[in-house]
Amino acid sequence: xxxxxxxxxxxxxxxxxxxxxxxxxxxxxxxxxxxxxxxxxxxxxxxxxxxxxxxxxxxxxxxxxxxxxxxxxxxxxxxxxxxxxxxxxxxxxxxxxxxxxxxxxxxxxxxxxxxxxxxxxxxxxxxxxxxxxxxxxxxxxxxxxxxxxxxxxxxxxxxxxxxxxxxxxxxxxxxxxxxxxxxxxxxxxxxxxxxxxxxxxxxxxxxxxxxxxxxxxxxxxxxxxxxxxxxxxxxxxxxxxxxxxxxxxxxxxxxxxxxxxxxxxxxxxxxxxxxxxxxxxxxxxxxxxxxxxxxxxxxxxxxxxxxxxxxxxxxxxxxxxxxxxxxxxxxxxxxxxxxxxxxxxxxxxxxxxxxxxxxxxxxxxxxxxxxxxxxxxxxxxxxxxxxxxxxxxxxxxxxxxxxxxxxxxxxxxxxxxxxxxxxxxxxxxxxxxxxxxxxxxxxxxxxxxxxxxxxxxxxxxxxxxxxxxxxxxxxxxxxxxxxxxxxxxxxxxxxxxxxxxxxxxxxxxxxxxxxxxxxxxxxxxxxxxxxxxxxxxxxxxxxxxxxxxxxxxxxxxxxxxxxxxxxxxxxxxxxxxxxxxxxxxxxxxxxxxxxxxxxxxxxxxxxxxxxxxxxxxxxxxxxxxxxxxxxxxxxxxxxxxxxxxxxxxxxxxxxxxxxxxxxxxxxxxxxxxxxxxxxxxxxxxxxxxxxxxxxxxxxxxxxxxxxxxxxxxxxxxxxxxxxxxxxxxxxxxxxxxxxxxxxxxxxxxxxxxxxxxxxxxxxxxxxxxxxxxxxxxxxxxxxxxxxxxxxxxxxx
Length: 796
Known about the structure:
The chain has four domains: 2-236, no CATH class; 258-353, PAS domain (Beta-Lactamase, 2-Layer Sandwich), CATH 3.30.450; 366-522, Reverse transcriptase/Diguanylate cyclase domain (Alpha-Beta Plaits, 2-Layer Sandwich); 546-782, TIM Barrel (Alpha-Beta Barrel), CATH 3.20.20. α5 (111-131) packs across α6 and α6 runs antiparallel to α7 (175-193). It is an alpha/beta fold. An eight-stranded mixed beta barrel has the order 18-19-21-22-23-24-25-26. A six-stranded antiparallel beta sheet has the order 7-6-5-10-9-8. It contains 29 helices and 26 strands.
């Protein structure tokens, strides 16, 4: 070491030594900056980056060496062989390039190995450069001192490479001086080990490079290194700005995300966006430090191993207040740098609530919250698996009495409120395990689990009837309803769920037929009635094509003239084996099955055809069913039949019931206006028997109103019935509408109607309905039309 110190202090220009060290420090700083940038690149660096790095490092070492050689003053003439000098710089660039490549590989070599390669490059360059020295003497080395300088250089280079690798390519204070120390130790240590023995016989070749030319070459390379350094500095500045902008952009992106994002260092949250802090119950402006992720997501680690492409999993988050939040989490590794974990947390509370609501709606009635048909079927099938003859399952079918009238009269909002309240009252009567379902409209069903039957079902039915009988209060309205209940049991009455439902329905029909407001158990007689009904429907379908249907006619009489001014066509069914089937039996059946459409069209065509053949232009009245207005185009049908038969439309009187206007007033009025435009007469039949409204006469100009026979039948002994008849007659006179009383059966009734000013009537006291042949003298002979008082027609 003393020899090295003597060499530096006595044989070197110390000013140039400091320049050499400064150039070494500057070039090393530039080289490590380039290497650090290459290390941070995500993609594999381009070969040009390796070339630039090797050039900066090699020329820096070479410039350090030759500036130090310019500082060397051996007191002998010196020069440098150009070829060897050029070779030395190539060796420096090549060897340091290999060392950096080994360090920057995907799987880098150990720092000791890369440091050794770097040391070999520095030493090779140094001794090649020393070999280029031309002087008047002989150059010798102290090998022990050379070995010591190389060992120190390797140690320093290894420290520099190790520090660089440990800090992921980022510049740290230890790497730069360690690498400078490695270069200086090898150069100045080797220079201290060198000695020159003068020899007059040795001369400097004429082609050698002098100190001035060497200084120029060094200056040129230093300028090149400075240029690269400037470019690297500009690049680093730009990258720093881009990194800052990227960080800000990423921060803005994460804050605008709909999910919570957090970066973990191990199990601790080191950064997170506002969504995450709010979700975890912390103030985003003052987030906690060193928050352990396990306190928020206790089972997250157990359920999701972090993976670069890991999917979302459902778990629970416990916030700062101890509340449980349903969340989805996913983890990612790597994109945040440093191998840290990024966790994504998504609040799915609303989504799960919506899914639960959808699942509930799929199995429940949205209005009342009762189970729907699907849920009822599933519950019934499950209950039947536990049913036995000793512990049967019961099914109760429930229908609200008078609900339809309330719904029609007060509207759907009131009807819905009644349904909701009724469902709740029924639900309050149920025991655990019993299922209430709404089947549609005002129909409900209950499935009673296996138990002590029929006691349990009968007791439940009594509770329901008592509960529904209590008044319903909807707004300012006080409403009274009733309820009918039909009950059937499995396995006593049925073997399947579908059959059980059918049997309970039959029991419900019996309860309604028995006066409503009661419950009935199914019995075999009901089943026989069902079979008989099905047979009757089948026979009715064959009645029209088989010619079993016919029309009877009942005279319509003018009270003032006493003459017959028309007939009402009435449908009759004569079955070969069943005999004469009453209209009250088969007409409702025809309406329920839809057979009323073809049958009603046949009645209308047959009545018009018959009336068109009369010599007298008498009226013909035909009843229309509300079903005919609901399906098909009744106005077009009437127009076609009038054209086919050639009847004067003014002679055709179409009778409708007020139920038609209650069900769908807007559609009914549209059809009635079309009929009126054809020139036919429109009468309201059975007025007063339902929820009659005077508004009907305001919205549609009826030609006639018929007083229902129930009022005529009671008028002699019931003052209220007589008062209603008087009111209707007065209404007709006030509106200029004809009034006809139907069902007049006694002379007393006929006399009272005359006294009250009733204009028209029909009934048994005048004539029973009969085939038109029995009225030929009326429809064919004009002289038989009376002129003064109504006459009783004697039909033989």
